[in-house]
Structure formats: structure tokens, C-alpha cells
UniProtKB/TrEMBL annotation:
Pfam families: AFOR_N (PF02730). This is Aldehyde ferredoxin oxidoreductase N-terminal domain-containing protein. GO terms for molecular function: iron-sulfur cluster binding; oxidoreductase activity, acting on the aldehyde or oxo group of donors, iron-sulfur protein as acceptor. SUPFAM superfamilies: Aldehyde ferredoxin oxidoreductase, N-terminal domain. Residues 3-90 form the Aldehyde ferredoxin oxidoreductase N-terminal domain. InterPro entries: Ald_Fedxn_OxRdtase_N, Ald_Fedxn_OxRdtase_N_sf, W-dependent_AOR.
Length: 90
């Protein structure tokens, strides 16, 4: 499993980039891909934020089997608060 990678936090307003390792507890609990995206979106987006504002987080991640030799597993997840529903959009 290739979930020992880092998370890159990129602030498009200030052009700041910060990388942090994914904690082991988070890797085990959310398994990467959509689960990790949902966790990060919940924790990095303020309640009531406009989906089209700079305060909305945009997450791009690989699926859980993305870095393995398994066939047909090249999956990319793009996640943010949806402007259509105002909820989790993937």
C-alpha cells in the first residue's frame, strides 16, 4: 500500500506550499482516496463556506490501489464542496 506518502497543502492565494506526512492513524482509518478526501474536506473547510470561494478546499488524490501493480486501479479522486448541492462532491 502506497499510503506512506505526504500531503501537499497548497494555498493558491499566497502561493505557499507545505508538505506533511500522513499520520499512521489517519492512513489506517481512512485508507486513502475518497475516505481520506472526505476527512480532509471536513477538517479543512469551514462550515457555511461558499463552494466557489477561496475558502473551499480542493482535494486531488490517488485511489487506494493507485501505486500498486494491480490492473485497472489507476483512479484519481477530485473532491470539494459542491456548488450544486453544498455538500461533499466527488
Amino acid at each position: 500500500m502506497a499510503l506512506n506518502r505526504k500531503i501537499a497543502y497548497i494555498d493558491l492565494t499566497s502561493a505557499a506550499i507545505e508538505t506533511k506526512p500522513i499520520p499512521l492513524q489517519m492512513r489506517r482509518k481512512y485508507l486513502g482516496g475518497r475516505g481520506l478526501d472526505a476527512y480532509l474536506l471536513y477538517n479543512h473547510t469551514e462550515a457555511g463556506v461558499d463552494p466557489l470561494s477561496p475558502g473551499n478546499a480542493l482535494l486531488i488524490s490517488a485511489g487506494i490501489l493507485g501505486a500498486t501493480l494491480a490492473s485497472a486501479t489507476a483512479r484519481t479522486h477530485i473532491c470539494a464542496k459542491s456548488p450544486l448541492t453544498g455538500f461533499f462532491g466527488s
